[in-house]
């Protein structure tokens, strides 16, 4: 097992489709240098698979089952707060 931490750039609007090793574990989502990024613990020996993530803003409508909660990020340029969910059924 070769485990490390990778960083993934995200967009606030729409679905974020990423390719990551199977079983990748989301660790944190934050604003960094004007971008929104997520760090995941990955096993480089595992095969890549597709993952789907989506943000929902505080006070915005969301589906009854949005996925597994990952984290919250605040954007300081406009004061909005966004909550990231893993919609791919990943761990």
Brief overview:
This protein has no helices and seven strands.
Give a description of the structure.
The protein has 91 residues and is mostly beta strands. It has one domain. 0% of the residues lie in helices and 60% in strands. It has no helices and seven strands. The chain has a four-stranded antiparallel sheet, with no helix packed on it. The chain has a three-stranded antiparallel sheet with strand order 1-4-3, with no helix packed on it. The relative contact order is 0.28. The model has no long low-confidence stretch (mean pLDDT 93).
Any chance you could write out the topology, listing elements then pairs?
Layout lengths: L2 E8 L4 E7 L3 E8 L2 E9 L4 E10 L10 E7 L6 E6 L5
Antiparallel strand pairs: 1-4, 2-5, 3-4, 5-7, 6-7
Number of domains as seen in the coordinates: 1
Shape: globular
Q: Hey, roughly how much beta strand do the residues contain?
A: over 45%
Class derived from helix and strand content: mainly beta
What brief labels describe this structure?
91 residues, mainly beta, four-stranded antiparallel sheet, 7 strands, 0% helix, 60% strand, globular
